[in-house]
Structure formats: C-alpha cells, structure tokens
Amino acid sequence: MPAPVEGLATADPGTLPLSAASSLFQRLRATTPQLARRAPGEHDAARWREHRIGERRYRVAQPVTFTPYAAARPCSARCLFCSENLRLLDAGAMAQTLRPGPDHFERLSAALTQLRGLPLSWSLSGLESSDDEDWFLRLLATLAAAERDGVQVEERVLYSNGAGFARGRGEELIAALRAFGLSWLELSRHHHDAARNQAIMRFRDGEAIADGAAFARVARRLSEALPLRQVCIVQRGGIDDADGVRAYLDWARACGAGTVIFREFSRLGPGYRDNATARYLEAGRVPIEQVLSACMDAPWWPQLTPQRITEGYYFWNLRLREPRSGLEVVFEASDYAAMHRRHASGDIYKLVFHGNGRLCAGWQPDRDVLWPPGADTPARGDAGGGADANAGLAERADG
C-alpha cells in the first residue's frame, strides 16, 4: 500500500514525531511541497489489516515488510558500523550467528503460508545474500513460489554490498533478480575512493568488489538491468560535508545510480551494551542535519528540487530531484528507540523469518515469536532488538 501524500505546509507538526523534531524542519517545510506518511495513524482503519497467524489474530501496519533473515556464511564485509554487532542489554541469541539448517527453506515456506492474503513487501536484507549464490537463488525461488501460492507482494527490494555480483556468477544472479521482478536494488558504498571505502567496509581478502573499478563495473551492469539506488552512510572519515556529498553524487551518477541515499547512523537511545560497534557509532556519527544544512548552503544546492518528506515508523527522510539528470537524492535519519516503542506496542510493524526457523515481529530471533505455535518467547509487547546490517538502515527511501 503506497503511503498517502498530503501537503507538508498544512500538516500538523505534532503528528510528525521524527521529522518535526529535526532542527531543519521549519526550513525544509518552507520549500518542500509534499508529506508522505508511511507509518499508519492509530485510528486509520484503511492502514491496518487484521490477520491470523497460527491461532492468534494481530493488527498489522500497512505497508509492512518481510525479511527472510538468514545467510549460509558470514558476511563478505565487516563494516565498522554494522548493527549485527550491537547488543541490547537484555538480548538473547544474535541473529547473525544462526546459520540456516538443511530444512530451512521448507520451514520458510511453511511460515509463509501463514501470511497468505496479507499485503507485504519482500525486504532482502541482513548479512549479504549474494555471498552464497546457490543459497540466494534458492531463496528467490522459494519466495516466488510463495507468491504463486497466494502471498500478496507489493514490492521486492534487495540490500547488497555487491560482492556476489563481482564474482563469476553475477550475470546469473542478475537474470534471477529480473525474473523475480525486483523493484529496486540498494547497493552500499560509503566512499567513492576505494581505499577510504575499504577502511569503513573492510571486505575480506579476495573480494573483487573492494576494488573501485570492479565496483563501478558491477554498478553499471546492475543499473542496466535493474533500478539501482546507491547508499552512503555519512560518517567521520567518509562522506561528512557538502563537498563530499557533491563528489559522491557525481560519481554515483557515473556508476548508473538513479537514486543516491545519504543516511545517518541509526540513533540508538538507551539499552545497548557498550561494545566496539556502539563506540564506533558514537565517535563516527555525523548528524544528517549537519550534512544537509551544509549542502543547503552550498552553491550547487539550487540544482536540486525538493519533492517530499517521508515520516516512517522509525525514520524520516527528505527526497529531492535533480531535473537536469533525473537523479533522485535522499537524506535520511532513523531512531532505534522509536522502532522499539512501535515493536513493543503489540501491533506488527515488521516481519522477520530467522535462521532458527521462527517468524518474529522484529529483529530478535527469540523475541516476539509469531510462528511456529508454542515457541518460547516473551509476550508480545516486550521490546526486541537488533536490525539489519546497515545499522537499521533498510526499508526506507521508499517510493
């Protein structure tokens, strides 16, 4: 279900807890014509679905995404900011440590039968799906079979670092994604200089995608076959000012990207353990308002036309367009505390199938379990934890 759009100038800021809290909101409001509300209002009956999973009925937000979160091997990159390594104080098992068993796809198919008739979108994120080509192809086949069997899918999105596409079977993966009907692919690259990007993403030895020329070739080939959105997480040591943004935009356009997304590290809030990842996020954080404000004061800013602000359930973003090239540019921030509050509400805002065979209403594989029946889990309403491998940065910049 597309998010309803209205005029931003007449919207009540009190109903926009994330975007209206930004120090730039009033300045943006003066120039941005539209507001898209991706998070449904509490009493907006058209934006909620009652749906039975197992023996219980739940209220499910529209739109909602489903992530088949599991990977057959560790990720090809070891990004310093990766939220797979964040731990809540009361967290149980780490989702990234769960490798799918031999019956994984049978269990995934069984879980998906519980979602027939519920409008949802596929969000393929968490670790790196393309790292094991055979596993990834079987995943796509399983999801496609679920669609034929009655799962109602609106969009299909892949989040990737591109590693699998730079190996010998890249064309096979691209053909499979085209047959799957992929809506778009979000390709992560956090600096246009390969050495500076490698200092952030830390690809493992032998990964061709680490090379700048190899990445550009992969990006251009992907853009020829699929709608390509390139993602840059702003951070100290990476892209952190207006000059960096301008250089990255020019480079990404040359790589074939139709959209470029600049994201801040997700804001954590309380409840996370003080580990190396949390400390890196704190030390390396560059607020999106800082970058955006510098861009708005740059001489090239008038080349971009503001389109709309989107208010999500734990994120907000500003979308602009470069009329000369057609390039879309997005600036985005997200808030884990807001995510946890929504997940603790008892309503369903997110669906995740984990490597342990459990369908959950969040990113923790042993919390908020919806299926199978009888699985041990805290009651719905307890806060979960974790998020995707881009520090909670997937499922946004939505159309």
| Morphology call | globular
Tally of individual domains: 1
Largest sheet: 15 strands, mixed
What's the CATH architecture name?
A: Alpha-Beta Barrel
In oligomeric terms, what are we looking at?
A: single chain
Q: Calculate the mean pLDDT score and round it.
A: 91
Fraction of helical residues: 25-40%
What's the CATH first level? Alpha Beta
Helix/strand class: alpha/beta
Helix-strand pattern: EHEEEHEHEHEHHEHEHHEEEHEEE
**Number of E strands:** 15
Give the termini separation. 11 Å
CATH fold title: TIM Barrel
Q: Identify the CATH homologous superfamily.
A: Aldolase class I
Strand content: 15-25%
Low-confidence stretches: 378-395
Give the number of helices.
Answer: 10
Radius of gyration: 20 Å
